[in-house]
Amino acid sequence: MLHSIQKFIKNISPFTPLIVAFDLGTHTTKIGLKGKGVILREPTCAAYRTQPVREYLFFGTDAKQIIGKTPEFLHIIKPLVNGIVSDFDTEVALIRYYIEKSVLPYVHSSFIKPPLHAITAVPSTSTEIEQKAVEEALLKAGCSSVSLIKKPLASASGAGFNVFFHKPHLVVDIGAGLIEMSIISGGGIVLYRSLKQAGDHMDKVIANYIHLKHGVLLGEASCEKLKIACLNFTNIEKTELVRGKSLENGLPKSIKIKSSELREALTPVFSLILDTVKELLEVAATEIVNDIYQEGILLTGKAALIPGFSAYMSEALKVEVLVSEHSPEATIYGLLKIADSPEHMKAAQINIA
Q1: Closest Cα to residue 239, out of 254, 220, 219, 221?
Q2: Residue 184 forms beta bridges with which residues?
Q3: Minimum mean pLDDT among 14-18, 93-97, 123-127, 338-342: which range?
Q4: Res. 353 pLDDT band, cuts 50 70 90
Q5: What value does the mean pLDDT take over residues 22-40?
Q6: Does the pLDDT of residue 9 top 50, yes or no?
Q7: Which residues are CB-contacts of 349 (< 8 A; sequence separation ≥ 6)?
Q8: Pairing mode of beta strands 84-85, 55-59
Q9: Which residues contact 102 (CB under 8 A, 6 or more apart)?
Q10: Mean pLDDT in residue range 113-120
């Protein structure tokens, strides 16, 4: 019924559809508008109260700022886990709010709104049911139609590669919920591997390390800030002061954490990333490996900005590792780039029942 109504509205609308790109990230939601660029960057987070009825009160930054500080009747939800929709209703409410905040101000008519055509990226490992959940969430949030693109294609395109040319590229995208490693050629994915030990998992590893070594409990936000401020793979030793709760007496306690401690804590995670890239190269055809060694490996995602990380990977893999210009936003830029070409969008689009 919903599809029929939306199709009817689309057919009678005198307006050309607005093409809106959605990067529905585990940590951050980004929205781009064709011809305008990126128009929103907000945390993928919402807060609702359970009494007397379920009602959403805060979204994005406002919701993230109160994590761990709320009464029992106020719940903070991150509706995406490992790049997959885990709370459908919250994701719909979040997308609807972000559309009203960022997209609708560009709509000049107050009487009849033009239909919105959404183009979004989904993990290469996502199942048909998971892809359908993303499509339904966007439709229910107010979009009239949806095009789904495999995320590695969007990320590589946003980094400047021509993904529709028959030249293999290896892209390692380290996000908050998922790490995707894909060999791309001719508009498709030749080989891929994925890991769930991404940014959010790293925060938990850091919290556990500090808990065991220093006897201090740190919150999720504190671990994320510590990782951003202190983690590096250079010779520079940074020190950051953090405050948590002492396990001895339950009182606040301040400790100093060094860059070397964070590297020690996260060594198993980064070793796993390197081993998985090596495995991908081992199973790839000889011709593909030869091209990758000539072109290098592309690193995208926020982790690509960790100082010295690309050099660390390059030394371990004996291959040049490149960092894309807009690494954390490669996916949204790639979606906008693909949206500029109807032929490319048709070629890259996932067809689901």
Answers
A1: 254
A2: 169, 189
A3: 14-18
A4: low
A5: 94
A6: no
A7: 147, 148, 149
A8: unpaired
A9: 31, 33, 39, 40
A10: 90
Q: Which residues contact 276 (CB under 8 A, 6 or more apart)?
A: 179, 181, 193, 195
CA-to-CA distance for 344 and 131, rounded, in angstroms?
20
pLDDT at 345: 85
- Of the pLDDT bands very low, low, confident and very high (cuts 50, 70, 90), residue 254 is very high
Residues 6+ apart with CB under 8 A from 203: 220, 223, 224, 227
pLDDT at residue 2, rounded to an integer? 46
Residue with structure tokens 């001895």?
248
Q: Confidence class of residue 276 from pLDDT cuts 50, 70 and 90? A: very high
What is the three-state SS of the chain?
Answer: CHHHHHHHHHHHCCCCCEEEEEEECCCEEEEEECCCEEEEEEECCEEEECCCCCEEEEECHHHHCCCCCCCCCEEEECCEECCEECCHHHHHHHHHHHHHHHHHHHCCCCCCCCCEEEEEEECCCCCHHHHHHHHHHHHHCCCCEEEEEEHHHHHHHHCCCCCCCCCCEEEEEECCCCEEEEEEECCEEEEEEEECCCHHHHHHHHHHHHHHHHCEECCHHHHHHHHHHHCCCCCCCCEEEEEEEECCCCCEEEEEEEHHHHHHHHHHHHHHHHHHHHHHHHHCCHHHHHHHHHHCEEEECHHHHCCCHHHHHHHHHCCCEEECCCHHHHHHHHHHHHHCCHHHHHHHECCCC
Structural domains of the chain, ranges and CATH numbers in brackets: 2-44+79-154+332-348 (3.30.420.40), 161-197+265-327 (3.30.420.40), 199-263 (3.90.640.10)
pLDDT digit string, tens, across residues 182-219: 999 988 999 999 999 999 999 999 999 999 999 999 98
Q: Tell me if 19 sits within 8 A of 34, measured CB to CB.
A: yes
Number of residues that this document lists for the chain: 353
Instruction: Calculate mean pLDDT across residues 145-164.
Output: 91
CA distance 141 to 100: 10
